[in-house]
Amino acid sequence: MIERLGELEKEALAKVAAAEDVKQLEEIRITYLGKKGPITEVLRGMGSLSEEERPKVGQKGNEVRTSIQSAIDEKNEELEAAALEARLAEEAIDVTLPGRPVRRGARHPLTAVVEEIEDIFIGMGFDVTEGPEVETDAYNFEALNLPKDHPARDMQDSFYVTDDLLLRTQTSPVQARTLETKGGEGPVKIVCPGKVYRRDEDDATHSHQFMQVEGLYVDKNVRLSDLKGVLETFVKQYFGADRTIRLRPSFFPFTEPSAEVDVSCGICGGTGCRVCKHTGWIEVLGAGMVHPNVLEMSGFDPEEYSGFAFGMGVERFAMLKYGIDDIRHFYTNDQRFLDQFKRV
What we know:
Elements: H1 2-18, H2 22-33, H3 38-44, H4 53-90, H5 109-122, E1 127-128, E2 134-136, H6 137-140, E3 165-167, H7 172-181, E4 188-197, E5 209-219, H8 224-239, E6 245-252, E7 255-264, E8 281-290, H9 292-297, E9 306-313, H10 314-322, H11 335-338
């Protein structure tokens, strides 16, 4: 039996040494060390041996098992190391090749314009205030001197959620809400940026959703000349120091007097061209002195306080500054369009 165990050991070790992969090693282990293997069969015959021979055969059996298992483990490590080396050689990275460029995002042009407008007005002492986009009829219209059935409501075709809730048509409700929180005590000096919604046919110059920045200044002895001074300072910082403004009489329900504000054309310098329709001026925003009714409904005494308000379309200001001819470019997510503003 001892001789037979020695023969099986040599036979197994030879096969282990010749194994080419881990699968063959596993087959050898099962063949020689398994419960149905030849070594196990030899050891089952120990019952016919004398008491003196049994320990010797059992010891030899253990030595053979240990020897074969050690050879298998050693060969397994060798094969795994060789496989890893081959894989590393196959997947080698050429560090001399140029890396793939990482595409970096950038601020959307409308975001950049809003931030620039905010920075200019913050520099003049204004605070930035925001409010809800789903607004009540009371704040969106009534608090702004637009009672129900007022004809001026027809100027803004609205998206109603319920009879009393709608998507705000302007950021002016933020002004009404802010005034209401002050308890009739000024000053109030804010700009309100945000999205607004109106039922409009989308084309090159109109969109059912767009952005506004509105401003409000309420204090004692605020005059129309203050409004003109603030807007002229803003226009010169935004468009350039050579630009000027003019105020034309207009009508808005929440301001009195009201004005349309034009800026001198930057293309022709005011002499007249196709862009300004040969007038030398481009309309940019609406403004006026806060209507006494608006002040009174917000808790301010119109005999003691006065103020001015203005509103501008962000898309229009972006189009004028960067020569964009279609408002829809801002919302179509065309990467070619957006890539032009990576430094904005």
